[in-house]
Amino acid sequence: MGRIRQDHSRFRQIVRGKIRRNLKKYISRGELLGKQGKDLVSIPLPQIETPRFRFGQKNSGGVGQGDGEPGDSLGQGDQQPGAGEAGQGEGQKALEVDVTLDELADILGEELELPNIQPRGEKQVVTERDRYSGIRPVGPESLRHFKRTYKRALLRTIASGQYRWDDPVVLPTREDMRYRSWKTITSPQSNAVVIYMMDVSGSMGDEQKEIVRIESFWINAWLRRQYKGIETRYIVHDATAREVDEHTFFHTRESGGTMISSAYRLCAQMIKDDYSPSDWNIYPFHFSDGDNWSVDDTAACIRLLREIIVPASNQFSYGQVESPYGSGQFIKDIREHFPVGSPDCNVVCSEIKDRDAIVGSIKEFLGAGR
Amino acid sequence: MIQYLKVKSLPPELWQWRTKIEQVARDEGLDFFDTIFEVLSYDKMNEIAAYGGFPTRYPHWRWGMNYEQFSKSYAYGLSKIYELVINTDPCYAYLLEGNDMVDQKLVMAHVFGHCDFFKNNFWFSPTDRKMIDTMANHATRVRRYQDLYGVNTVEEFIDVCLSLENLIDLHRPYIRRHPPNSERLKLDDLPDELIGDVDEVPRLKAKEYMEDFVNPEDYLEAQRRKRKKEAEQQKRFPLRPERDVLLFLMEHAPLTRWQRNVIGVIRTEAYYFAPQAMTKIMNEGWASYWHTHIMTRHILADSEIIDYADRHSGTTVMQRGRINPYKIGLELFRHIEDRWNKGRFGREYEECDDMAERAHWDLNLGLGREKIFEVRKHHNDLTFLDEFLTPEFCAEQKLFTFEHNPKANEWQIASRQFEDIKKKLLQQLTNLGQPIIEVEDANFENRSELLLKHVHDGVDLDDTYAHDTLANLYKLWKRPVHVWTRKDDKEVLISHDGKKASERKL
Question: Does the pTM of the predicted model rise above 0.95?
């Protein structure tokens, strides 16, 4: 592809560098979420432009062609209509560059210095499949490969001069016979599951939900990169818990009291039913504003965590978003019962005050390498 | 040079048409260098277009960026590069593989128009027709520097220079600004290797690898210091405001030899492309004029008329919001031809006030064709529009000016008056629509600081861009840099000291 390949890849390198440096801004502004295509995320990069002396927007304007009266509108906003020219000049528009989700996850890992997740030996689940892609000279008659057999027989007949053009008869002998045989193909199966739990009681507003959405996008991207594929389950709760799909998870508007134990109970049930810890890497995430109903309920939560959920998981993560209505007590309770900081502890807590804190929170969650 | 491309020579049918079209073009009076056509796949086309037509250019990520944009545009069906032709002798022109025959014929006719323009228009006369080789030399030089000093170092330096790429003196190749000074080395006289090494210090001729021995750096440095002291004793430095800022930096900024060379490369290429920017409307108009004439009178088969009309109207579509150079150029040439055929020029016509008489004026002079050949020889866009734009033309073409209305935050049509339109057009075309920046004082406040001046003509500079550009300028000058300008009608000095930008009112 000639000379352009070098310059083109140099450009992509620079783009990657720019994305890295501005990652925090992109994350906190949640800009990338809306622009996902199939596998590509589209990122606007205005900073690629070379700065030069040029005129400001005021007093510029220009000349156009067409119908209309003085006072008619040509378009909204700051961008000059019809700006930019095709042809041999270079465009100075804000550039949109496509990046794959994998690349994005890599950039995230580089920028936040996330450790790769250490694989847990027993949990490599592999599926085995047999594919009939080989040939061998012996086998059961049911696996006979007609074409190959016939070909060999024909070859032998012609080579030995026995082939009659006017009366073609080909008889395969035992040596000609060919049979299908199989190869065992192993494919690693997705063996990580992320269970998202979110408090949707009255105290969680749209802004909080947006923060959760942004965080979950990046966590998903990272985990997807680390494991061959992940499953995600979504639980919402207020005073009761139920499983939902992704869309409902982010858009539901409940209101009610908050009993976190309901969510944990459902989560524990999910683990028991579908995800055996010996086969699965489990990552429960819980987001709430920390305002639980009662001390008794909190005690029930702690018990559930300690007995069922935490031992089964690679890492249990709790994110507390700040809400004007919540008391923020829950995170203190968790921290009390699960001494965070000790190397055995696989419980991680994080407080997320606002959008700018998302980056720090992601680093806390994913920084342990579990 | 271009051998690395897997190109197809023209298939026989195309070759026949090409010969025929060339013959028609020459018969009509078009005069051009030999033209070599090549057919390229869309990918190769995007690649060559990314390099501005010269695949032998120095390595830089900007070509990669262009390539990405062109490829995406193509992939999403937004635009296709139909033709590419470069100003060289012989001319190279590229056709897009997969276009149907009508398109290819149209493109070939269009290309011949361009080639004639390149050869005959006065503003192109000083351009280097062997630019392909020159670009290749530039690339070799840059690559050598990359080997010697590191890819990143060189790339960062080029990035800084590109920031100042537009600070050249557009009229320099055509007039003599300074009185001839036998001591001052004229750039055009120097062989290629020395262009980047211009000092005002006399030096012994030496091969490049012997440079350091024959003209050792400390001797040159001593000479430079001597000259600088002499210059300081002069009243001003530079004596007159210097518009060729790049040249000034090459000569006087504290740079290493390779850095001067790189600025030289960028400057040479900027000067090469400048005439194309200065004559965009005329060039496209001229080529469109000829492709219509050649196609409709000589080349088109009856079955192709509709496809041709479709294609042609696509290139000359009027969009609100900006002028289409193809359309304006074409119509203005036709307008001129019509006027000179009918004798609608000269004092009598100008002084005639009667609208009806003007509308029916027809002296049957038949001078139109001759006139447009003459016009294409002498004018650039600015003079073209200045001289030939008329109120009738503006009305016919439905031209208007538009402005930004900050209250409604929208762009609105402002005026259909001839004077306003003409003024706006000329303003946009002056200095290629870019602010005029000159070196005013290289020893500002007697502290070796660089003062640039923005010659203000009604429009303020963009602040953020100015700050960033000054930051880059600092990297070259290595002392604080300033630009004098006006903002909201008040004099303002924008400065940069290497760490941050600042502004103060004067």
Answer: no
